[in-house]
C-alpha cells in the first residue's frame, strides 16, 4: 500500500509540475533556492575583504616558501 501511495504522489507531483511548466510558470522557486542564489550572486564587502586577506596570506606563504628553498639551495 505504501508503494502505491508513493507512486501516486510521484505521478501527481509530476503532472502538477508539467502543467505549470506548460503554462509558462518556470520561475517558481523555493525559499532555499532563493537563499542559495542570493549567497552566490550577491557581492558584499566582507567577501572582498576576505578575498584580499586571503591573497595577502597566500603571497606571504609563497615568499616564505621561496626564501626557504633559496636558502637551502643558495
Give a description of the structure.
The chain has helices at residues 2-22, 31-41, 45-73. The chain is 82% helix and 0% strand. The mean pLDDT is 85. It has 74 residues and is mainly alpha-helical.
Keywords:
elongated, 82% helix, mainly alpha, 3 helices, single chain, 74 residues
In short:
The protein has 74 residues and is mainly α.
Give the SSE layout.
Elements: H1 2-22, H2 31-41, H3 45-73
What is the 3D form? elongated
Order of helices and strands: HHH
Beta-strand portion reads: under 5%
**DSSP summary: helix tally:** 3
Amino acid at each position: 500500500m505504501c508503494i502505491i501511495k508513493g507512486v501516486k504522489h510521484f505521478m501527481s507531483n509530476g503532472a502538477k509540475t508539467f502543467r505549470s511548466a506548460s503554462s509558462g510558470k518556470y520561475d517558481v522557486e523555493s525559499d532555499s533556492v532563493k537563499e542559495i542564489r542570493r549567497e552566490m550572486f550577491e557581492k558584499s564587502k566582507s567577501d572582498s575583504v576576505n578575498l584580499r586577506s586571503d591573497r595577502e596570506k597566500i603571497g606571504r606563504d609563497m615568499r616564505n616558501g621561496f626564501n626557504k628553498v633559496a636558502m637551502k639551495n643558495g
